[in-house]
What we know:
Elements: H1 17-20, H2 32-36, E1 42-46, E2 52-56, H3 66-70, H4 80-88, E3 95-97, E4 101-103, E5 105-111, H5 116-119, H6 125-135, E6 141-147, E7 155-160, H7 163-168, H8 180-186, E8 195-199, H9 201-213, H10 215-220, E9 221-227, H11 235-244, E10 252-259, E11 270-275, E12 284-285, H12 286-294, E13 316-320, E14 334-338, H13 341-352, E15 356-360, H14 363-369, H15 371-391, H16 404-427, H17 437-476
Parallel strand pairs: 6-8, 8-9, 9-13
Antiparallel strand pairs: 1-2, 3-4, 5-14, 5-15, 6-7, 10-11, 11-12, 13-14
Amino acid sequence: MDNLIPHKQIISTHKQVVSEIVEHDLCIGCGICVGICPSNLLEMSWQENGDLAPDIDGKCPPSCDACLTVCPFGDHSLVETTLAMQDFGHNNNIKTDPDLGLYLETFVGHSLIDNHRKNGASGGMTTWFLETLLETNRVDAIISINKSDSEQELFEFQVIDDIQTIQSIAGSVYHPVDMASVIAQINQKGLEKNYAVVGLPCFIKGIKLAMQTMPRLRRRIKVTLGLTCGHLPNKFYTEYLSEISGIKAGDVQSVDYRIKKRTNRAGNFKFQATSKTKKSGSALAFSDISNIWGAGHFGMNACNFCDDVFAELADISVMDAWLPEYEYDTDGNSLMIIRNQELAQLLLDGMELNTCKAQPISASEISKSQSGVIFHKKYLLEARLFWAGLQGLKVPQKRVQPNPAVYQQHKWQVAARFAVQSTSKKLWPKVNKSNLKLFSLYIYFLSLPIVLFKFFTKISNLIKNLKKSYFFKRKIN
Ligand SMILES: Cc1cc2nc3c(=O)[nH]c(=O)nc-3n(C[C@H](O)[C@H](O)[C@H](O)COP(=O)(O)OP(=O)(O)OC[C@H]3O[C@@H](n4cnc5c(N)ncnc54)[C@H](O)[C@@H]3O)c2cc1C
Ligand code: SF4
Ligand code: SF4
């Protein structure tokens, strides 16, 4: 674990996000603190270990704690359940589920508009909502990720107000991208505009925290769309995949993480990088790189202390339909958890107008689709929190409590994941890029214990379920 990262340029001795979050390796790189800092002292920058995090240059005013109040990994009592109750609890029809949080409706489906589905990460329903929100003038602009206009970055959050661009940015971005400049832009004095924001669960939490104290953000952000999230790898993930696909990391112009063409299963999408000279790297099937993703190589440490799988604070959460009945529909389907009545109506209207195809699905099916992520993010968090306590590490307040029994049962799995993450991040900058074979071999062997743990957990769960249904049948008989 890259704990207690030494930081350049710290002049302030005052408590702020760099001393309280970044130095404890708890920053996810959302940039919201940078976007709202009233003294403009913070700036996002790439860290040596491949993470994106703020640096500070200057002295904070004595009583200022603005950055800490908006940080999703700040130690405050406003956990997701409390914030969700504030936003959605007033609706008499709201339901609650231990995994999904609060929700009104749950659907599965896909877009029927243009190439939404073809270009979308799953069923293209996020793009469908973004386009529909713009077209029906419910919002003036969308905040989402696009390819960066700058030479230095691959992606950036942008303010987008045309449908053509919304369609062109479909897909998933597995790379740290900060919201600093768009948050500052929304918060500017002057022109009132309404926005819809797309983000990972922790980003949506940061936005909701910022909306608590910043009236302009509260007034202007009308809709939030959350992407269900397992974890976020840092920039070395993209560099490594680009290099093994034949494109030098420094020469990458653009990256597509989820090409659907010619896949055999919905989850077996391909990664492809394109160079600045428009040369395409070889397409890497997810099945060939799944150990890199699954074992958590190059992962951001903050994700180890996150218990929001479904973006519980978003007006709508969208995710892949990882269910057996959709596995072979390689065009893709989206699962949706809707918490906002207006969005539920928008979807029903779309179904009637034939711009999308959707049907209700149970909350338990949605949980089932993410069972691996729930196990990792919620159940194993009990073990990780206990482990962090043993190490004397600072961790933010969580809804999940440290649990010595879970730790005892899974300590090797927990230790292996931390080791995989931190070693891959330390080693990658030192690897001889002209000979990647050794590093790839290292990745393979280091992933093995985690892959095996996952395999055995699956088998033991299967046996438990079989036993349960056997005894259940005997009872009935
Ligand atoms: C890091 C990460 C981890 C994920 N983990 C899971 C998981 O464990 N299980 C699961 O079911 N789904 C996961 N997803 C969500 C999934 O990949 C799809 O994004 C989701 O199913 C929506 O698909 P869609 O076809 O509706 O979206 P699209 O129609 O393709 O639209 C996606 C929109 O989201 C924007 N976008 C893409 N990446 C980001 C990002 N990082 N931050 C903000 N906006 C972004 C795009 O620009 C586009 O506007 C994850 C996504 C990310 C980025
Ligand atoms: S998680 Fe976001 S708000 Fe917190 S320190 Fe990092 S960039 Fe700032
Ligand atoms: S796992 Fe949690 S902290 Fe990590 S990117 Fe996803 S929502 Fe954010």
